[in-house]
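Re: weekly structure request thread

Next one in the queue (110 aa):
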Amino acid sequence: VIEGLRVDPACQGQGIGSRLIVPVLVRADQDGVPCYLETQTESNVAFYQRRGFEVVSDGEPPGQGIRIWTMLREATDDITGSEAGDEILDDLLGDDDPAPVVAKANAHLH
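Done, posted below.
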């Protein structure tokens, strides 16, 4: 369980968020478990959607004065075999070959 993940706004857009979340997504895929999250920041919704999450609810809890998006990402058999997986690897590697990163993640997680 990750209670919170935040990248300072001055450092956003540099792939830091992807580097933080990709190992979690790889592990979840290997274990065959979904990932769930909540965000109160609308711009985060697109970030997570590019990584395979889907919005399952969106609203303001009564009396809270905040908007919350709840999102779910089902496990996938191959992070490199989906559009979201390709997006994740592109964030990390640019034009580099993803195979060494996937192999290294698999080695560390088994």
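The beta strands are 35-39, 54-59, 68-73. The CA atoms of residues 8 and 16 lie 10 Å apart.
Next request, please.
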